[in-house]
Structures are given as structure tokens and as C-alpha cells.
Amino acid sequence: MSEKDFKNKVAIVTGAGQGIGLEICKQLAERGAQVLLNDIEESLAEKAAHEVSKFGICQPVAGDASDTSFITALVQEAITKFGKIDIAIANAGITLYGDFFDYSPADFNRVMQVNLAGSFFLAQAAAQKMKEQGEGGSILFMSSVTGHQAHKNLTAYGMTKAALEMLAKTLVVELSPFKITVNTVAPGATLTERTAMDKDYKNTWSRITPMGRPATPVDVASAVLFLVSPQATHITGQSIIVDGGWTSVSPSPY
Prior knowledge:
Layout: E1 10-13, H1 19-30, E2 34-39, H2 42-52, E3 57-62, H3 68-82, E4 87-90, H4 105-133, E5 137-142, H5 155-175, E6 180-187, H6 201-208, H7 217-227, E7 239-242, H8 246-249
Parallel strand pairs: 1-2, 1-4, 2-3, 4-5, 5-6, 6-7
Helix pairs in contact: 1-2, 1-7, 3-4, 4-5
């Protein structure tokens, strides 16, 4: 990809206060995009946007990306601030572990609301603006290897990630007439601030990953940027798994 592939493009990235989302914002800004960086925590969004601003243009927008009213306001903020929207990346998501036999309705509903409803309605709001603009666009959902392989205590979470990949396939029918691509990236084990809290995480996943290490946020963000770049305008309804080969063999970390 060229250093200026995203010049004058406007992108929204949800759940981007740290980890993969933050790295996506950095790479987009560095390549010329104007980025709206969302996180539910205001202080985290502002800190992350300040960091991204070293690479290019970035505006923090704090709020709950599972709230449909906020999603509408977020997309409108892109129009107000930058005049349009070209790229929408639904990165926000939550993982609530739990045994299937004891999983609570409250946890189930929260996972569905954040991971599915938040992604669905961000895509809807962004695609409506892209359709009106008449210049196409790119939508990307963040899936997971848990949408491909079973993980203990992640039944509800895995459901949402498999559903996001089906959502991308289904939206091909709806969005292709307007030159809007829609794809997913499915990360495997990734070294982030959250996973770093587990002192055994890196060693465990290095041992069971064919490539010998977990992914980094750069690994995942690079796949995301390709799918929303000008080089991928004829790729839609697809998912790229970024897992160092883990899904090919699928040994359990437990």
C-alpha cells in the first residue's frame, strides 16, 4: 500500500482507545485519513486521539458504540467535522466469559448488543451516508477465530463473531450496487493491553500457534487496512483470519 492511499478519506473506528483499534487509527492517519476515534471511556479516547494525532488528523468521540442513538450521532459527527464518511470499522466489542449452563440473560444480552447490534447499526448508518454520497465506501467488522473454532466458556461471544461474518456476506447483496465493500477480519490470539494481564498468555499461545507467536495489533491492523484500501475494491463479503495458522490445527490453550 502507498503511504497516501487514504488521503482525504474519512474513517470511523469504534472501540479504539487501545489495542487493535488504536493501531488501526494510527495506520489510517499515517496514510492520510481523517479519523474519528471512538471509545466508551472519554479519557481513553482523548489520550488515544492525542497519540494518533502525531501521525495525522484524529478526532476523539467518546460514547457507547452499542447505543443506536450514539451511533447515529457518531456518523453525523463525521459529516459535520469532515464533510463525508468513506470507511466505517466496527471494532468495538466485549468478551464476557461464562459456562453455558450458568450464563446469565444479562450477560448474553450485553454481548449481543455490543458485538452484534453495535456493528449492525454502525454499518446501517454509515452505508446510508455512503449511498447518499454516491462514491462508494468500505465497511469492516471485527470477527474472531472463535467464530470458526469452539472455545471453552465463549459460546455467546463465538456466536456473535460467526454472525458478523454472515452479516458481511449478506450485506454484499444490499451494498454492492452502491460500490460499498463489506468484509471482516478475524484475529486469533493477540498481544494487547488486555491479554497482557495474563502472565502466561504469550508463552501459551506461542507454544500452540504454528507461526510460534501470538499476533500483534500491527498484524491485525495491516489486514484491516488492506481490506478498506483502494487495492481491495473488488473484495467483498470475505473474512481474513489473522492467527498465525492456529485455526488450521486448533489446539486448546486450556
